[in-house]
Design a protein that fits this description.
The chain has 223 residues and is of the alpha/beta class. It has 2 domains: 117 residues, NAD(P)-binding Rossmann-like Domain (Rossmann fold), CATH 3.40.50; 87 residues, Alpha-Beta Plaits, CATH 3.30.70. 24% of the residues lie in helices and 26% in strands. It is built from 5 helices and 11 strands; from the N terminus they run E-H-E-E-H-E-H-E-E-H-E-E-E-E-E-H. The strands form 2 sheets. A 6-stranded parallel beta sheet has the order 3-2-1-4-5-6, with helices on both faces. A 5-stranded antiparallel beta sheet has the order 7-8-11-9-10. It starts with a strand and ends in a 5-residue tail after the last helix.
Length: 223
């Protein structure tokens, strides 16, 4: 996969390193000479230029890439880069960083954004996840489908502890996608048994009844 990343700050460089480790091709763009820390991500292609200008995106061969990541610290820049990538170069997928949560409503298909990532939201979710066993935490929202990825740590008193996954009647429009047990992620099969402390990752559609889902997961077993 070929990826163009606009913004070679700490976020952009971190994304680039992860992608390179997975054998993807990466081009990093930044207009600040001070950001050209080429040795820090030596295997990436580097381009000094303004990613909001068509000449720079053309030089980066954006029309040939599979994904554009707008990872700068400026929301206006990230929106413009996403829009240009979609409308001018037909990039199949755009991922945009949201710096100010108040601007998140703008990061949608109208601006060419397929996936918006709000770092403050993710950080908040991680804090909540760390301290709130038994609470449903929204980790991520897909902007096109409006589906959510939710996390819940199964409490000891839950009626689902000791129950096989195949026996659970999940609310409409919800799917158990993964179970993290200790540090090990598991793809749940119908014969797997849920355990107290399991981190459940659930995909919920926009019409899912989250109250019913929460009740299913945390209601104590009948005595």
């Amino acid at each position: 996969m070929r990826v163009v990343i606009a913004g070679a700050g700490s976020v952009g460089r971190s994304i680039a390193r992860e992608l390179l480790l997975n054998d993807h091709e990466v081009t990093l763009i930044d207009k600040q000479p001070s950001a050209m820390r080429i040795a820090s991500v030596a295997d990436a292609d580097w381009l000094l230029g303004d990613a909001c200008e068509l000449s720079t995106l053309t030089q980066a061969a954006t029309e040939e890439c599979d994904v554009v990541v707008a990872a700068t610290g400026d929301d206006k820049v990230n929106l413009v880069v996403s829009l240009l990538a979609k409308t001018e170069y037909g990039v199949p997928r755009t991922v945009a960083r949201v710096n100010n949560p108040k601007n998140e409503w703008m990061f949608d298909e109208a601006w060419g954004v397929d996936v918006a990532v709000s770092t403050p939201r993710i950080m908040t979710a991680m804090v909540e996840e760390a301290v709130a066993v038994g609470d449903l935490v929204k980790i991520f929202t897909f902007h096109q489908s409006k589906a959510d990825i939710l996390e819940l740590t199964l409490p000891e008193h839950s009626a689902l502890v000791g129950v096989r996954v195949g026996q659970v009647v999940w609310p409409l429009d919800t799917v158990l996608a993964a179970v993290v047990r200790g540090r090990k992620p598991l793809a749940p099969s119908p014969d797997d048994t849920l355990e107290a402390g399991d981190e459940l990752l659930i995909v919920a559609g926009s019409d899912a009844d989250l109250d019913a889902l929460h009740d299913l997961l945390v209601t104590p077993a009948a005595t």
